Each structure stands twice: as structure tokens, then as C-alpha cells.
């Protein structure tokens, strides 16, 4: 289940309805889907997409999303450090970045106008949509990364990081989620 943190205010929110309200009032879509399916390591993309079809299809239809795939990152992922670094610097995209966490976890950081930076730890069952143009970055962790997530796109080409070059992520490099 998700955890929202605002490091500069020393604030951590565990309550899911409070998290949903916090995000929704800032234009960030957040939801939780039933995620009680356990997959073998060998589970392929089709099996995973099929298992969540009943949640995925209506969501995709209502948002006009065209494609979905599954990304898996774990300690066996080659070039993990390079992959991690690619999304660890503050960036935006020209389309929404939508992730449903089938398993594992990852930390989304948000830098909105006139607000302290906050982050959302996404875990199994969490669905997040980072609106296009929102300054954000993502971290799957320095060691022992584990992410299994469905990615949902209108147009995959919109999902290229456009770096802001702020270097803001560096200020939060030592942050650890209070569980
Ligand atoms: Fe991103």
C-alpha cells in the first residue's frame, strides 16, 4: 500500500483516502486495484495483462489509452544503474506516465509549483498517473530493485524524459521512506 511523504515538512501519510485526496486535489490520479494475483517469475506479459483485464480494459477505454505493456526490474536486470539514472533526474513527459504496480515497489517524486517536493511510494496494487508536463523523477532503489508494473500509454513515443536539469533530486538522495 502506498505511503506519501513530504520530507521538508517531516510529514508521512499512510492513510489511503488521505493520500488519494492529497493527490487528486493536485490533479494526480491515484487508485488501488485488487492485486491478489501471484505470478511466477516466469510469468509473461500476456499472462499479467490478462490477469488484470477486468480493471485495465475499462480504465483504458475511459482514458483513450491505446497500449499497455509490463516492465520488470529486479536484481538480475542488466545495466540497472544506467536504467535507474535515466529516471532519477527530474524530468517531464509529453504524455501521462501511468503505472500499475503488480508487484515490488518504486518511489515517485513530484515537484509541483509553489509546493514542497513530495513523494509517493507505490507498492503492489497502486495505480498512479503522473500528468503530462509534471516535473517528477522515479527511483526503484539503489540496491535490490524490484518492480513489476503495467505501463499504459496513449502513444509510447510521448514517454521520453525531457530533463529539466534542476538537479533537485540530489537534495533528496538520502531520503528514506518511514514505513
Ligand atoms: Fe517519468
Automatic annotation (TrEMBL):
GO terms for biological process: L-methionine salvage from methylthioadenosine; L-methionine salvage from S-adenosylmethionine. The record marks 96 as: May play a role in transmitting local conformational changes. Monomer. The record marks 90 as: May play a role in metal incorporation in vivo. Gene3D superfamilies: Jelly Rolls (2.60.120.10). SUPFAM superfamilies: RmlC-like cupins (SSF51182). The record marks 99 as: Important to generate the dianion. Belongs to the acireductone dioxygenase (ARD) family. Binds 1 Fe(2+) cation per monomer. Keywords: Amino-acid biosynthesis, Dioxygenase, Iron, Metal-binding, Methionine biosynthesis, Nickel, Oxidoreductase. This is Acireductone dioxygenase. Catalyzes 2 different reactions between oxygene and the acireductone 1,2-dihydroxy-3-keto-5-methylthiopentene (DHK-MTPene) depending upon the metal bound in the active site. Fe-containing acireductone dioxygenase (Fe-ARD) produces formate and 2-keto-4-methylthiobutyrate (KMTB), the alpha-ketoacid precursor of methionine in the methionine recycle pathway. Ni-containing acireductone dioxygenase (Ni-ARD) produces methylthiopropionate, carbon monoxide and formate, and does not lie on the methionine recycle pathway. Pfam families: ARD (PF03079). It comes from Fluviicola taffensis (strain DSM 16823 / NCIMB 13979 / RW262). The keyword Lipid biosynthesis does not apply. The keyword Isomerase does not apply. One of its GO terms (molecular function) is iron ion binding. Pathway: Amino-acid biosynthesis; L-methionine biosynthesis via salvage pathway; L-methionine from S-methyl-5-thio-alpha-D-ribose 1-phosphate: step 5/6. It catalyses: 1,2-dihydroxy-5-(methylsulfanyl)pent-1-en-3-one + O2 = 4-methylsulfanyl-2-oxobutanoate + formate + 2 H(+); 1,2-dihydroxy-5-(methylsulfanyl)pent-1-en-3-one + O2 = 3-(methylsulfanyl)propanoate + CO + formate + 2 H(+). Its cofactor is Fe(2+); Ni(2+). Fe(2+) binds at residues 91, 93, 97, 136. Coiled coil: none annotated. InterPro entries: ARD, ARD_bac, RmlC-like_jellyroll, RmlC_Cupin_sf. It comes from the Bacteria. Its EC number is 1.13.11.54, 1.13.11.53. Ni(2+) binds at residues 91, 93, 97, 136.
Amino acid at each position: 500500500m502506498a505511503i506519501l511523504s513530504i520530507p521538508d515538512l517531516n510529514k508521512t501519510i499512510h492513510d489511503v483516502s488521505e493520500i488519494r485526496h492529497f493527490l487528486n486535489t493536485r490533479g494526480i490520479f491515484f487508485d488501488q486495484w485488487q492485486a491478489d494475483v501471484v505470478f511466477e517469475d516466469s510469468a509473461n506479459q500476456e499472462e499479467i495483462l490478462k490477469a488484470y483485464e477486468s480493471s485495465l480494459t475499462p480504465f483504458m477505454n475511459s482514458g483513450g489509452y491505446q497500449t499497455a505493456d509490463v516492465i520488470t526490474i529486479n536484481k538480475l536486470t542488466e545495466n540497472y544503474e544506467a536504467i535507474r539514472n535515466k529516471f532519477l533526474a527530474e524530468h517531464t513527459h509529453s504524455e501521462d506516465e501511468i503505472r500499475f504496480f503488480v508487484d515490488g515497489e518504486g518511489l515517485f517524486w513530484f515537484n509541483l509549483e509553489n509546493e514542497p517536493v513530495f513523494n509517493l511510494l507505490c507498492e503492489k496494487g497502486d495505480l498512479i498517473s503522473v500528468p503530462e508536463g509534471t516535473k517528477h523523477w522515479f527511483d526503484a532503489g539503489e540496491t535490490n530493485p524490484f518492480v513489476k508494473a503495467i505501463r499504459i500509454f496513449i502513444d509510447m513515443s510521448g514517454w521520453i524524459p525531457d530533463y529539466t536539469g534542476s538537479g533537485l533530486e540530489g537534495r533528496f538522495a538520502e531520503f528514506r521512506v518511514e514505513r
